Amino acid sequence: MGFKKKYTAFIIPAALAVMVSACGAEKEESPDEETTQTEASAQNQESEETTAQTTETALTDANNDEEEKSENRILIAYFTAAENSGVDAEASASYSEVDGEAKGRMQALAEMIQAEVGGDLFSIQTEEVYPADGGELIDYAAEEQEEDARPALSTHIDDISQYDTIFLGYPNWWADLPQPLYSFLDEYDLSGKTIIPFNSHNGSRFSNTISTIQELEPNAEVITDGFTINERDVPDAAEDIANWLEGLGF
Ligand SMILES: Cc1cc2nc3c(=O)[nH]c(=O)nc-3n(C[C@H](O)[C@H](O)[C@H](O)COP(=O)(O)O)c2cc1C
Q1: Gap between the Cα atoms of 64 and 35, Å rounded
Q2: Which homologous superfamily does the CATH classification assign to the domain defined by 5-247?
């Protein structure tokens, strides 16, 4: 596994991420890729999994054509390992417990933002299923980054023109955006829109991801005062999020 020079400074936090992920990995069962992929992509399929139900609702919200649309021009798009890694065990390190419910960290933050500002939730999901094992995910993501990959997405927004403001949420992966975020930003031209980043991390905060988003969407207004929080503080982030949003004028 080769690493780019610019990530050298992030080896310590990334190593912590390995440790945290590895702890969780011991408890994980081997992934059932077929089942998970079906859950991730079937928007109308009934599922007993709370997370899958929430995802389906989110996807429906972002893709429907109901009358709310004309009044509601906020999209909250996020990527989280929990909805892409083939892990369905609540004991997994990919999940945080928020208000007694197990969910992906970025999903939890996205929902906290939605509780304050409304808008549609959209879960960025990939066709491929990422490794469920924390250590394997770390290595896999490093290789994907080295290749500058653009993993194919399995979820899509019907009509991006209906949104003016896009909250964009992602974990810090190897001091950069996860590669599916590059796929997302390739797919949609966000010119003229306001992009508000939010992220969670294990010590590296945003790294340079906000500048990267601005480079990839040069005609969008990218808010540099994004919301960033350590992974361990995600369950208690609601008040900080409310204060941050107030500061932004919401
Ligand atoms: C592949 C991978 C790489 C990561 N790299 C970093 C990193 O470079 N710096 C950091 O602070 N955290 C890093 N982390 C930790 C994640 O940013 C953190 O756990 C985040 O809260 C995950 O959000 P999620 O569970 O919603 O996907 C990494 C995690 C993974 C899985």
Answers
A1: 25
A2: Flavodoxin domain (3.40.50.360)
